[in-house]
Amino acid sequence: MRRRTLLSLSALALAGCSALPSKPQRQTMYDFGPDAAAPASATAPARAALILPDVEVSGILETPALLYRLGYEDPNQLRPYAFARWSAPPGQLLRQRLRDVLGRDRPVLDSAAGAALARRGGTPPPVLRVELEEFSQLFESPTASQGVLRLRCTLLDNTSGGERLLAQRNFNVQRPAPSADAPGGVRALAAATDAAAQDIAAWLQQR
After folding, report:
1. What's this model's pTM, rounded to 2 decimal places?
2. Is 174 contained in some domain?
3. What span, in angstroms and rounded, lies between the C-alpha atoms of 104 and 183?
C-alpha cells in the first residue's frame, strides 16, 4: 500500500511539472547583414553628391517590429512576430543600406550636412526623398512566403526658390524566403532591399 501511495504521488508530481508554463523564448534581433555586393571600381568617375534624408515611414513601420501577412487567410492584416524584431526601425536600416550602395560612386550627405554646405556658399546637391510603404513577409501558403518591399523615390533639385521636382518613381521588389519563418523573412527582405538599392542606383544614373 505504501509503495502504491508513493507511485501515485510521483505521478502527480510529474504531471504537475509538465503543466508548468515553459520559459519565455528569447527575443532575437536582426538586421540586413554586411553589404556583400562588390564595390565600384576605383577608376570609376565620382558622380555628383546627393542628399539622402531620413526615410519617411508611418504607422507600425516606425517600430522595429518584424511583420508578416497571411495572404491565404487575411492579406489585409499585418502581424508582428512575437520573438523576432529588427535591430532598428526598417526605415533606418533601409537608409543605411541605400547610403552604402549609393556611396560607392558619389558622396551621400544627410540633411544637416547639405544645409551646412549651403550656408558656406556651396551649391546644394539634389535631394532624394524615400517613402517606405510596405516592408513585410507575405505568406502565400503555410510553407511558402516572400519578402515584399514597396517604396517611392522622389528626386528634387535644390534651388534658391525651394525644391523643384526632377523625377519620381515607385519601386516594388519581392524576393522568395528560404524558409517559412522569421529568419526566412529576414533573408527575403534583406535580399529585396539590396535589389531595390541597386535599382535606385541605376535609376539615378539615368537622371
Report:
1. 0.82
2. yes
3. 28
